[in-house]
Structure formats: structure tokens, C-alpha cells
Amino acid sequence: METDVLLRIKDLHIGFRINESFYNAVDGVSLTLRKNEILAIVGESGCGKSTLATSIIGLFDRSNTRIQGEILFKNKNLATLTEDQLNDIRGLDISMIFQDPLSALNPLMRIGEQIEEGLIYHTKFSSHDRKRKVLELLKQVGIQNPNRVSRQFPHQLSGGMRQRVMIAIAISCKPKIIIADEPTTALDVTIQAQILDLLVEMQQETGAGIILITHDLGIVAEVANRVAVMYAGEIIEEAPVKELFLYPKHPYTRSLLHSIPQMNSYTNRLNAIEGMVPSLKYLPRLGCRFSSRIPWIRKEAHEKRPALHEISPGHFVRCTCWKEFHFNKVKGDGTYELYAN
Amino acid sequence: MSFMRINNLKVHFPVRGGFYNTIIDTVYAVDGVSMELERGKAYGLVGESGCGKSTLGKAIIGLEKITSGSIYYKGKNITNKRRDRKSIYNRDIQMIFQDSHSSLNPRKRIQDIIAEPIRNFLNLTPKEENRKISELLEIVGMPEDARFKYPHEFSGGQKQRIGIARSIATNPKLIIADEPVSALDLSVQAQVLNFMKDIQDEFHLSYLFISHDLGVVKHMCDHISIMYKGRFVETGTKYDIYNNPQHIYTKRLLSAIPKVTPIGREKRKRERIKVEQYYQKEYKKYFDEHGRVLDLVPISRTHFVATTSR
Amino acid sequence: MWKTIVRRFLLMIPQLFVLSILIFILAKFMPGDPFTGLITPETDPSRIEELTEKAGLNDPWHIQYVRWIARAVQGDFGMSYTFKRDVASLIGERALNTFWLSFLSVILLYAIAIPLGILAGRYHNSRLDKTVIFYSFFTYAIPTFVLSLVFLYIFGYKLEWFPTSGSVDIKYEPGTLGYIWSKGYHIILPAITYAILGTTGVIQYLRSEIIDTKAMDFVRTARSKGIPTRKVYSKHIIRNSLLPIAAFLGFTITGLLGGSIFIETIFGYPGMGQLFVSSISSRDYSVITALVMLYGFLTLLGSLLSDIIMSIVDPRIRIE
């Protein structure tokens, strides 16, 4: 393994039980996270991005989930560890930040206690040292009066403050990896900007690798180094951030980028993707999963078993259909409007 | 020519407490807002959570009691008549909600959901009503057999279309859309936004588009008002707001929105931090001694800013 | 907080006043009067009439009411017609009996229900969970009198482990150690029955709370910190799941005095429930009205107590 690789996911499948059979929400995902890197995983709801994120440290319901493949961290396959073995890694080596900081904090516990909890089990600090460390962490995440805040309860803080507390919890044991699952979705834009800046700052200070799960391509463009786009449980495109935004290849990535109402454009119509994401149960498991939403593309243009192809260094695209993709405007007189590739 | 005028509208909520449960405080949810709406135009109402934008929308349609101020519709003062069922105002002003799921009665079929405003406001024979429902379903791009189904059988985007079908059933003049696409995925959001633009052109509708998403508002609206603490801090055409923002709050809001390109993000971050520092420093200049947003002052024919007159 | 408590107490006055009028009228609407039961073929009707007149029962109801309420506010609820003694002291004695019975029952109830509810919720869908559910539905389905009679038959008559009626053995002098022991001994069987019958609600409530709380975001956060599973349960899941039960604690405490009509009647235990039933059947107005007033007051007090308890255990709830 290369020395700067923190985490390597190989051919990961995660299935949920629906009426006695398992359906894969994550279907053959391989990813690598390196030191000092922010890897963004983007996709729409139901694409499997959150499932992927939470299963890295095994935060799923074991009785209804089936996990296959490898999640390699420090020469251990996290997918095969028991709850107790995972507890030695959670919070210490890999920590998480969740979407809604109000529901993600225990309403009956003081902020200080909630930050301290991880320290109790992962460090040998005395009670006094832990209390000092909590105040230090609160200060580090930009909270003005750590003494008061540490004695407060979650409902007494604003949304932005609560997310700062979540970040303090996540960085408390100096983890190697932070997984942030939609960390700013519940926040206003100005607070979102502050939290993202803080996250980047913490990452640069600690040298941790961050996996950022989001549906917002704007956030990806602002903070990520590398991007993986997920659709229907698969990664359909992966590239360094500039490459992805400047030269997107997969039809799905390109469609998504064109469906954002952007600040600096004055187009009258947005690109809408035909149809919708098939549900887990009815997901096509063979062939190109996006093909039903670009019906104007010849069947032969798709691969039978679409694989990720490296089309330039570090830039992977699934299937070969992208070569024939052009934007389709179905509305109006029914003719297709062709865009240059 | 405007068809609707809102004058110095206020919605205050009393906070009760103390030994005798008397009014001890007031929440100034909407605190002196004036607007003029023209036919066929889209107006954007932007602000962060708790700024009063949704309350303003609800007050206009009559779901919230107005403390003071007035609403004129087609020259008539209808401030206190908004609650009359079957009034022309109620027929002409309709609303679309963010959560299309909970705003559709789960125990009613789609045809009954859409028929409700028709039965309330239009005297149609059952046959005409049936035809009208089919027409509406076609307009929002839903299959004919959708009428016999229940809301839970549809996806989020489809439910939002059904909500729109219901809102345009009475040929309204104004649709108040409160965060209509916030709960939708990007690709579905694009479908709904495109569709809302289509019907706007087709029926010469006006929109009051309430959203926290400046990108969406800019895409949809001709005229934008930025709201903060129950008042407008800046109002103008979208070009005024995006290309020439004047109020410190608008500037800060604009600088915080992520751009969909990684090019120049370091520069944007420095700019953002600069604006934030400026905001902290200059904040007081834009508010009076009680922290209230100042009155709007015109800086051009269309562009108004809450600042001390210069 | 004190302000609110005082205000809530003041608010109880009009509520209790309205309740008292209602109760008084309803009691008067009941057919018969306290002397109906004394009538025998030999009774002289004029004697009954004389007694009724003397007791003031022929006056219009509002005059009777005013007379009653004027005394009641001074703590004098009159004399019981059937027991021929002061209502206040009668209720006081019964209330003490009921209190000890209910107290033991509630302790047993929670001692059985809380661990079972927690285990069932934690090992959701396991064999243990299914056994607990079976137990709780079984005790829910079985009528009170059936279980009571079965217990009485087995433990009282067959095995003779416990006495079958009363609250104390008459051979002991009040105040002696034997007297206290005898009282406790009489309580055990009805208390166990009472507790077992009450567990269903608490078990089911707690079980579903635990299952819901397990899936909460903050529990996921706790797990993501890498703290041991048992700590996730003790510090996060169980504490939060007990909130609704704590919310009901105020009513439970004041309910201790209410007693159980079925249990007390079947076990022949002289408590409030039994008193209530006998006073209704003998039209003992002064006891009925006093008891209902007391129940009304306890309910109001229970809701206040619950609010206070909630404000102590849940930091999100504040009483100004």
C-alpha cells in the first residue's frame, strides 16, 4: 500500500433486507482516500452515498444489512470487524459529522460532556485534563465563550454553533479520517460558508483526510480535491475537482451540472433529466444504470458490463455511452437539440 | 400597472408569560413590509431561516393575522376580507408549499384534491369538473389515470406537480410558492422549475417565490427582495441585486453562496472573509439603535436599500 | 418556577369549585338517599321523613350545597351516614392503608417493568423480546378479578402463604412491631397482583421508546465516538427513553392515594377504592363528595407534579 493512502475501499457491496431478500444500495464501490485530501462523494437522494459513509465505521443495523467487499484501514478490513473492535477505531482514527446537529446531539447532556465522552475511552487523560481539552477544542472550532457553552445544552445553541460542537467532537482525538455526511445541509448559507471554511481549516491543521458526502455540487466545487459521483449505488465518474467541473464526461454528471440554477448564467431553461431514479428493488443490475434516462442513445453505445475507464490520469468514467452523449431537449416541438460534445 | 399593493404590512406575535400570563414580549415576524406586484412577473423573497419570509407569504394569503398595514387587490382594500371563503381574492391567490407530501391529504384521491378549489370557487357541473381535472392533469404532465390514485403513490416531484395543478385550478393571478423545490433533488428540481416557468408564460401568472436559495430565485424571478429580521434590507431587479448589491447583508449573503466551479475558489474565500470582517465592523451602520433594519431609500428607479439617506 | 407553582395552585381553586358543584348535583340526582337502606317492613315512614328533614336533605340543593361548601373549606366534610363517623378521619385512615398498598405495588411494578422493557427493547425481535411481549399481553388480557381470585385461591386458601382479607390481624395492638409486620404481610399479595396487572403499559411503552431511541441520530453520534455499547445504552438510550415515564410519575405519585377499586374489593382490603364503592352503594353523600373532591385535587396536583418533574429531568423544558 502506498504510504499516503489512508483508506482503501475495494468492491464494496452493502445490501438492505427488504422482505427476506437483500438489495444492494451500494454496488461495487472502490475508492481511495489519501492524506490531506478532501474527497467528495456526490449524488442525489437514494444513490447510496450516505449508506457508504455510515458503513465505513459500521454504523448500520447489523441484522438487516449485508456487507461484502473490503474497507482497508491500517491493514485491517473494517467490514469484518466486530462492534467492540470497531469501537477502538471509531472516534479515535475515524470520526463522523452528521447532517442535522440538533438531532445528532443528545438533548439531555451538556455540550462539555458530549465532547468529553470520546476522550474518556480513547485517551489516558485525567478528568481535569479532559475538561481542559474540551475548552481547548471549543475554542479551536471558533466558539467565543467555551466555558459557558460547555455547560449548556444543545437546544440552547444556534444551528451553526451546534455544528461547530459536532466538529469539536469529531476532531477531539485527532482522527486520521473525518467522514462528514451532509454537514451543512441544515444550515443557512452564511453559516454553511463558515462551517465549510472551518472544516477545511481543521483538515489542514490536522492533516486528516475528509470524506465529504453531499448533494450540493456548489459545496464540492468550493472545498473538494477529488470528486466521486454516485448514481444508483455505483460510482459513475471520479476525477480531480477541476477536471470534473471543467471536463465532465458521464451523461449523468453533465446533466446534473446543467440542471443547477446558477448565479452567473442567464439561461431561461434548466436541463431536466428524464424519468427518475429507480427504487432499490427495481434497480437494473445489468448494463448501464443510467441508460433508461438517456433513451436517445443507441443501445450499442452502452457497455454490457459497464466498467470504470481511466480516460486521463485520475479521471474515471463508467460505461462508454458518454462518447455519444449530447443534451436532449425533448420539450417544445419534439426535436432534439444537439450540443457539441 | 400593479394589481396588488401591500402597504407597511406588520405581523407581530405576542409572547405570553409571567404570573398573570400577560403579554411580556413581541416577536416582530414581519415588521413593515411594502410591495407592489404586477401581472406576469415573478417576485423573489429571499432570506435566512427565521427572517419572516414565510410569515409574510402566509399573511398575504390569509393564513396569518395581520397586525397592521393593508393589502389592496385590484384597487380594493381586502386586508380584513382575506378569510372570507369564496371571495375573489381567495380564488385569485393560491399557494404552493414546500412539503408537498404533508400538504396533500393522504386519504383523498388526486381528483378530489384537485377538485377542492374547483368546487369552492367555480360553479361547474360534474361533467365540466371532470373535464377540468383532466385538463389540469395534462397541463402538469401527469397521466389521466393519476386521478384515481392517492398521494403516497407518487414521487416528490410528482406530488409537487399535483400541488401546482391544485393551485392553478381556479386560474389564479398570483401563486405564492413557499420553498417549492427545497425538498427535491436537483434533477427533479429542474423539472419543476422549468414547468413553473412554462405555466407562468401560458397563464400570465405572477409568482411570489419564497426561498433561501438565491440561485433558484435568480433563475425564476424578475424582482428580488432580501429580507432580514422581518424587514426588507434591499429590493430591486435581479440585476440590481446580483450585480450591484448595496446593503452589507446582501453582500454577505451573496459572498456565502457556493459557486459551481472550483476555479478561483481561493480568491472567493479571501473575498468572503473580507466581506465577513466588513460585516462585523460596519453592521451597526445599517441598523438603528434598536437593531432594526432601516427604512428603504431609493438609489435608482427600481433599486431600494435600507440605509441612512445620502 | 415558584411563581408558576403558586399560580397553578390558585388556578386549582376555580377548577375545584366547578367540580364541587358538579359532584354535588350528580350525587343528589342518584335515586334513593342514605336512609333507603335502613328501610325495613317495620320502619315507620314518618321516622324516615323525620331523619331526612333533620339531616337537611329536604332543602333545595343550592342551600344544601352552600351549607356543605362552607364547612368543607374549613376541612369539615361532615359525618358519614353509614359509618357514623367524621368523614375526614375516615378518609385519612383509609388513605393511609391505600397509600402503603399502592406504594409497594408501584415499586414492584417499576422493578418488574423497567428491566423487562429495557431488555425487550434492547434485544428487539429476539426470543427474550417475544417472551416479554407474550407476558405483557397475557397480563393485559387477563381480567383483574380473574387473576386476583386465582392468586387468592392458590396463595391464600391452598398454600395459605398469605392472609385472604383485611389490612391487619386484630390480635395486634396498634403501634407494636407485630402490628406493623402484620400490616405489611397483608399488603403483599394484593400488591403483587396490582403490580403484575400494571406492568403491561410500562413495558410496552419503554420497549417501543428504546427501539425508537436506538435509531435516533444522537445515538448514532454516540456510537461514532467509539464508546462501548453498554455505555451507549446507559448514558444515551435508556435515559432518553425513560423521559415519558418520568413525565407520568406525577400522576403515579398522586394516584397512590386513589387506590384500586377491584383489588381492594376482592382482597377485602379497607382502602379508598373499597370505601368509594361502598359509599356509592349506600348513597353516603358526604363521603362520595369528599372522595371525588380529593380525586379531583390529586389529578390536578399530579399534572403539576409531572410538569415540575419534567422540568427537572429534561433541560429543554423550563418552568418560568
Explain what you see.
Chain B: It comes from Lysinibacillus telephonicus. Chain B: Residues 4-254 form the ABC transporter domain. Chain B: It holds the Pfam family ABC_tran. The complex is a heterotrimer of chains A (341), B (310) and C (320). Helix content of chain A is 28%, strand content 24%. With 341 residues, chain A is α/β, with parallel strands linked by helices. Chain A folds into two domains: 5-224, Rossmann fold (3-Layer(aba) Sandwich); 234-324, no CATH class. In chain A, the strands form two sheets. An eight-stranded mixed sheet of chain A has the order 6-7-8-3-9-10-12-11, with helices on both faces. In chain A, strands 2-1-4-5 form a four-stranded antiparallel sheet. In chain A, α3 runs parallel beside α6 (159-171) and α6 (159-171) runs parallel beside α7. Chain B is α/β, with parallel strands linked by helices. Chain B has one domain (2-306): 3-Layer(aba) Sandwich (Rossmann fold), CATH 3.40.50. Chain B has ten helices and twelve strands. Chain B has helices spanning 53-61, 88-92, 110-121, 126-139, 156-168, 186-203, 214-220, 238-243, 248-256, 265-282; strands at 2-17, 22-38, 42-46, 68-73, 76-77, 93-96, 174-178, 206-211, 223-228, 231-237, 296-298, 304-306. In chain B, the strands form two sheets. Chain B has an eight-stranded mixed sheet, with helices on both faces. In chain B, β9 and β10 (231-237) form a beta hairpin. In chain B, α3 (110-121) packs across α4 and α3 runs parallel beside α5 (156-168). The model of chain B has no long low-confidence stretch (mean pLDDT 88). Chain C is an all-alpha fold and 320 residues long. Chain C folds into two domains: 16-72, no CATH class; 92-313, MetI-like fold. Helix content of chain C is 72%, strand content 0%. The longest helix of chain C has 38 residues, at 177-214.
| Percent helix of chain A | 25-40%
Q: Specify the CATH architecture of the largest domain in chain A.
A: 3-Layer(aba) Sandwich
- What CATH first level of the largest domain in chain A would be assigned? Alpha Beta
Largest sheet of chain C: none
Rg from alpha-carbon coordinates of chain C: 24 Å
Q: From the alpha-carbon coordinates, what is the Rg of chain A to the nearest angstrom?
A: 21 Å
Looking at this structure, what is the CATH superfamily of the largest domain in chain A? P-loop containing nucleotide triphosphate hydrolases
The CATH topology of the largest domain in chain A is Rossmann fold
How far is the N terminus from the C terminus of chain A? 38 Å
CATH class of the largest domain in chain C: Mainly Alpha
Total of helices of chain C = 14
Q: What does the overall shape of chain C look like?
A: globular
Uncertain ranges of chain A: 330-341
Q: Sum up the overall morphology of chain A in one term.
A: globular
